[in-house]
């Protein structure tokens, strides 16, 4: 049997749902492996050698080949149960509202198309910072508003420039606001561009694109600006307010 066939057989036979549903999940989420951006990150940042947390991991396809000690987080019970039934380590947790102090720190925190769904992006990013080992990195794919909003009306291609308007999104960002949010949460920017493939890479440096991949390193010595009313903290919000009285 080829490796893909072995994985398919294992998932179909061991998934927590009936075989037909397990097969549908395999066909949709596992058959073709991780998406392009994760594959790019895998090579570019040598993720195979690092412990990783995948926030919003769904059924867990990105975790298949990760280093021991890696895990995923999701808020969907079906995703969590299925991933665990096929031997992955996935925890049901809401990063913003739940206590995450028991979660193991990792070398790399990965998330894709999550930030735009989050009620409180700053608290979310501060808690992400607390989940990363000193010197570790966060890699985050974010749909953003393109420079030219009319591009969403282009025939055929328009849908690729309108993802920021998805009905489930409660925030939208530009490259600049993504960078600001992350740096204000304690990350040092390594890169912030869409990771186009091949010859399209030249467009990484133009601001009309509709997504970006932010990569930031945890700055362990980071603190809020001196005049800010907040101080960093390893608590439910990732910060505390200064006491003036």
What report would you give on this structure?
The longest helix has 12 residues, at 3-14. α1 crosses α2 (19-30). The model has no long low-confidence stretch (mean pLDDT 89). It is built from 6 helices and 9 strands. It has 245 residues and is an alpha/beta fold. The chain has helices at 3-14, 19-30, 36-44, 77-85, 121-130, 175-183; strands spanning 52-55, 71-74, 90-92, 106-112, 132-143, 187-193, 211-218, 230-232, 239-241. The chain is 25% helix and 21% strand. The chain starts with a helix and ends with a strand. It has a domain at 94-241: Vaccinia Virus protein VP39 (Rossmann fold), CATH 3.40.50. It has a 7-stranded mixed β-sheet, with helices on both faces. It has a two-stranded antiparallel sheet with strand order 8-9.
State mean pLDDT (0 to 100 scale): 89
CATH fold group of the domain at 94-241? Rossmann fold
Helix percent reads: 10-25%
Low-confidence stretches: none
- DSSP strand content: 15-25%
Number of strands: 9
**What's the assembly state of these chains?**
single chain
Anisotropy-based shape: globular
| CATH secondary-structure class of the domain at 94-241 | Alpha Beta
Secondary structural class: alpha/beta
Summarize the entry for a quick read.
The protein is built from six helices and nine strands. By secondary structure, it is α/β, with parallel strands linked by helices. The protein is globular.
